[in-house]
Amino acid sequence: MKDNKKIEQIKNHLVDNDNKVLSTNDGMPINDNNNSLKAGERGPSLQQVHIYLDKMMHFDRERIPERVVHARGSGAHGVFEMKEDISDLTIAKFLQKGTKTPVFVRFSTVAGFKGSTDLARDVRGFSVKFYTEDGNYDLVGNNIPVFFIQDAMNFPDLVHAVKPEPHNEMPQAASAHDTFWDFISLMPESAHMIMWVMSDRAIPRSLRMMEGFGVHTFKLVNKEGKGSFVKFHWKPKLGVHSVLWDEAQKISGFNSDFHREDLWENIDNGNFPQWDLGLQIIPEEDEHKYPFDLLDATKIIPEELVPVQIVGTMTLNKNPENFFAETEQVAFDPGRLVPGIDLTNDPLLQGRIFSYMDTQNYRLGGPNFHELPINRSIKQKHNNQKDGFSRTDILKGDVSYFPNSKASGCPYHAMLKGEEIGFESHKEKLQGEKVRARSSSFADHFSQATLFFQSQSEIEQLHIINALSFELSKVNDPKIRERQVAILNQIDKNLAKKVGDNLNITPKDSLDDLTLKFARQNHPEYPLPTKPQEIQKSEPLSMKIEKGEGTIETRKVAFLVDDGVSKESVDQLKNVLESEGAEAVLISSKVGPLKYKEGDIENIQNSYLTDASVLYDAFYTPDGDSVEKLRNNNEYKEFIKDAFKHCKVIGFDKHASSLLKDLDLEKDDAIIIADDENWIKDYIDTMKGHRYWNRELNMKK
């Protein structure tokens, strides 16, 4: 009986949304849940945008104390050094040539909870806190330069859709389910972002091997008050590399901390990861020059139109002392600006200014989260704010207001004394009606999605097709699948056909009526005519590199051995690899002492039972009495077969190459035999190409 009463109590609080009008938490009907309130279609968001504030404040408080998004993260300390002179563009002190600025960087996934795997298919957060002379500046970005939505009003909906479904809390850290694709298939503005997330960019090889982007267009402001639009890029010195989807799933099983461990170990070993900071600069007068809108966060500026100018380098050189105190408590906020940098009227960016500060106030126990050591500015703060939760600073005196005479007017405004420059928003003329609307310049949803797909190499396109087929196969509702394939058909006919073939769907020529209905809530005349695009293909959008072009620094090469292996054969390749910055790891049938053919003993930390092929970048089987032992070792065979499947470089000593027949593998250009004097150079040059993708293409034919 008691159980029945409890069930009745629960039923009394059930809410059924079927056939109900959308409303605020106070019951006020909402006629636009897609656009925040702005001063004109392309103007800034207004403070009185109470529907957005109501929605976002509820969203920011949904998890205690874990971040709602970006819960799974890794961080490191470092330094940014400015190397070029751009003083004509900005007065920001940390962007003056020769300046060195301490930084803290946090990398993160988006969809998963704190305990999820590093290798989920997901966007990666790439956020940098600069501890500058003028206070902290936060560049809060991602490893993908665009986003799913154009207005912050839709952000809670996007995250709710991609998170585990609320009735059963499944699946974890995955977008391959109905609610996500239901949302996406009704939001054609997400088409460009979906191409990136379904590409190999969403499963990086390492945090050290992914690009970072500011996503939004910002402004740089110089001493004359002139503004320039700017896009921020982080380009990794090690190149941009990924894993295969099959690898990602296996790595998650063997080591769900793969990215976190990789970053920690490399910094600990002195292999400090580096990124160059690049800027795309657009003069104010060119704001409307392009067929896309600079304020639209679902668009890039192709590098062929505006080249990326490299201006400085960031080096991460110190791991945190305490994960919670630093990586977990670091608080980023795109509204944390310094003189010389300002925001634009991008409606997604405008909403983030509120959301991030509100989140940190909530997560970290109140308005004094900036006093935590990891968030504290190197420049001492001075204001008359005294109280609040978790206050650690002790403000002297009896004045807690401004203006005042009792404290001699202190602290005073910048520029009133000395040469201290205060922050000043860039002046711009605003006009327009107070509206909830979307600019027609935001209405082209497919041109750049097409550009991205057509810029990919053949193997990268195949991976996108496979990813979409996998994700949509996990969707139970056939109508959702059909709607999304119709969207793909607007991007590329061949893409839609191949995904459709995998799903037994014939792509429709036009968008689904329901998709059009939602699109027309933002643009009543949708679809609008698209402007001619200046380029059809952009090389920087592809990750593919050719043999010999990259670097093998910090790559892990597995030497597959057993007792009786020749030390001479091991050292011949090992010494050259280490001189190139790679790491050679010996893997044997058991951990502990390994006896070389020459009589030497080495202690082995890795075995075929404790490690997996997917954790290594390349492989080598040396000569020795070990060859015959490996011939009958099934775990060894699995290592090689997985390496072959994942298109990695596989090397054999001349006498060990007889194992190829036992493995039933055909030799190709990435199976290197030590049978001539150039084999080591060939092995390393092939490794520099990251993967031998022709192998996968040949297997598909």
Automatic annotation (TrEMBL):
UniProt keyword annotations, A-Z: Heme, Hydrogen peroxide, Iron, Metal-binding, Oxidoreductase, Peroxidase
Reaction equation(s) it catalyzes: 2 H2O2 = O2 + 2 H2O
Annotated Catalase core domain residues: 23-410
Residues that hold heme according to the record: R67, R106, F155, R352, Y356, R363
PROSITE patterns: CATALASE_1, CATALASE_2, CATALASE_3
Highest taxon above the source species: Bacteria
Xref: InterPro entries: Catalase, Catalase_AS, Catalase_clade2, Catalase_clade2_helical, Catalase_core, Catalase_haem_BS, Catalase_immune_responsive, Catalase_large_C
Gene Ontology MF terms in the entry: catalase activity; heme binding; metal ion binding
EC numbers on record: 1.11.1.6
Cofactor(s) it depends on: heme
Catalytic residues (positions): H70, N142
Chain positions covered by the region annotation Disordered: 19-41
Function: Decomposes hydrogen peroxide into water and oxygen; serves to protect cells from the toxic effects of hydrogen peroxide.
Protein family per UniProt: Belongs to the catalase family. HPII subfamily.
Protein name (Swiss-Prot/TrEMBL): Catalase
Organism: Faecalibacter rhinopitheci
